[in-house]
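Lines hold sequence, tokenised fold; shown next:
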Amino acid sequence: MELAFSYVSGYSVAILLLQMVVLPSEQFTVSSSGSRQVALVGGHAEFSCQLSPPQSAERMEVGWFHERHSQLVYLYKDGEEVSGKSTYNYMNRTVLLKDSLGEGKVTLRIHNISVLDGGQYHCFFKDGDTSEEAIMDLRVAALGLDLQINVQVPDTKGLMLECNSGGWFPSPQMEWRDSRGNVIPYSSKSSSVDGAGLLHLKMSVLLKNSTHSPFTCCICNPVTGQEKRAGVILPAISFHIWKLHISLQFYPIDLILIATEFPTMQDE
């Protein structure tokens, strides 16, 4: 009788232990198509994420956050987009490309990129209590407007060349160079930011002579490597003010503006 009781008790304990065991859900990891990309202001950016091992994400919760989960960019849940949840800045600018959702791959496209969109993006998949994410970095750039050169005669011996351009992001490298490629020290430099967050730049140099003409103004975007240039060819004279007035008045053709653009994109 005691043996029977012991057997039943042991069996009951075993059943209780089995009931306490929680079977884990299928584990997965999330990877991205690229950890860093560059997008131009006004253009679009795409963030692709993939489940590993490949599996359907149609019934999972999928979303993107910007900058440490502080801004919800997009949320997909229960087979559809959850409208009204994304941060105001991203409303009507996002599209989910879900043709490969059955294999666990999704792509979020953001239109009309602005300077505020730069930074880290977190793509996450959530299935029950299991959640994993991948982090991507977006760098935003803007190639500014064509350069403009103004020639001025200050109240001193020499000639002032002023170069200005707007619509740049981030802050570019700006410099004047002579015909030998040497950088000419600037006499003044200023910048301002417009309502869209784009920079407007102005740089001036004071020339004592035109021995190393032509003189070229160069602005280079540090993110894309794109550069814009504008140059001026001056007559080979010493810049005494009265001579300069005569030269400009009677030989205006001696001042020739040239501009070149290098559109090659260099992604990091």
Summary: The helical segments are 2-20, 241-250. The first strand starts at residue 29 and ends at 32. The domain at 148-262 is CATH 2.60.40.10 (Immunoglobulin-like).
